[in-house]
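Hello again,

I reread your note about wanting to compare the complex against the isolated chains. To keep things tidy I'm splitting this into two emails, and this first one only covers the full assembly. Below are the input lines as submitted, including protein chains and any nucleic acid or small-molecule components. They are followed by the predicted structure of everything together. The single-chain runs will come separately.
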Amino acid sequence: MADTWLPSLITATPQEGFELAITLSRRGVKYTQPDAEVLHKLRPEYANDHAALTAASQVVATNFQTVAAANNYWRG
Amino acid sequence: MADTWLPSLITATPQEGFELAITLSRRGVKYTQPDAEVLHKLRPEYANDHAALTAASQVVATNFQTVAAANNYWRG
Amino acid sequence: MADTWLPSLITATPQEGFELAITLSRRGVKYTQPDAEVLHKLRPEYANDHAALTAASQVVATNFQTVAAANNYWRG
Amino acid sequence: MADTWLPSLITATPQEGFELAITLSRRGVKYTQPDAEVLHKLRPEYANDHAALTAASQVVATNFQTVAAANNYWRG
Amino acid sequence: MADTWLPSLITATPQEGFELAITLSRRGVKYTQPDAEVLHKLRPEYANDHAALTAASQVVATNFQTVAAANNYWRG
Amino acid sequence: MADTWLPSLITATPQEGFELAITLSRRGVKYTQPDAEVLHKLRPEYANDHAALTAASQVVATNFQTVAAANNYWRG
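Full-complex prediction:
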């Protein structure tokens, strides 16, 4: 991907870290399916499917583990 | 998300840590589907589906790993 | 949840640690579906479904990772 | 479970560690479905189902992570 | 596989690390199905399937954990 | 299993480590279904199924985490 979207894993707060984990999870999809239109078309399906929403939360949880470790759990 | 919901990963007890993992898991869903009404409508489906309940517990287990590590396993 | 069910992650033996991981996995379900009657009704389905049993073992394996790390792998 | 089946996570070799991970994975099933007859009846289904075999290998991989860390990766 | 495709886990930036995780995830498929034609034929199916795209992002998240740890989270 | 197939987790390079992770993943299947003929019969199914190929890559990613940690990420 041409754009620089991941300069660092360091964030100021846990919440920003969680939102970076959301970004990482979405990029994991985007690298596989770069066509934004296709992704937009798929949204109504997964956004109303509990299994899909739970699977998405699982990816976020895995990426949040990485970001939290990178930030030493924001233990200051 | 506008509200500040994740100020810290540090909790007083393992049980509070587990409940934070529940929060993280639900937020992972909410960031994907912010419409509370949709989530409410989906509840009867997943709350009576053993595969969905197990998948939810898997997300909690992953987030609990993160919270437990953040709290050095509450080893005092 | 009102009751105090998770005072500590520390256990005397690996087997007790594995049994704590079972408890954590079941609580991950219970926080999502607190109605014991519903869970009881679902049991015949998942207890005779190999995919469900494997998925349950996956949750236990993830929670056991956390408990084992908390106990420094019972290396004494 | 009454029997003592998990006295320690320490094994002499990585292969014994992998076999302990197999045991942990099967116990994760057995704690959920203790009836050996039911498990025996389910075997033809999952033993000939590639998705089930891969899911089983995923549980073993997760438990092997735990056992390997417990043994400091048998780095002597 | 004959070609040398993984000389190191070290990358200059987190984004390069994420792209290495993408490579690891695709190689995990390629070692199981080396026939590029088959993989090409499968693309329309998974690239338009939200569950498949989420599962792919889950593999990337797991591999990114490994690459990030290898690079000490690019904490410089 | 009688044969000694896992003497060590240490490999010379990351690529050899990835290939060991492939071996661990396949052994995780083989310990559950030792009949090579059955596994051979299943191959056409999973080798042409994107969900199965992604699930296989997920197992490899988990095992590669273990092997990479064992080798201190080949940081020399």
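For quick reference: Chain D touches chain F at residues 13-15, 18-19, 22, 46-48, 50-51, 53-58, 60-62, 64-65, 68-69, 73-75 (CB under 8 Å).

B.
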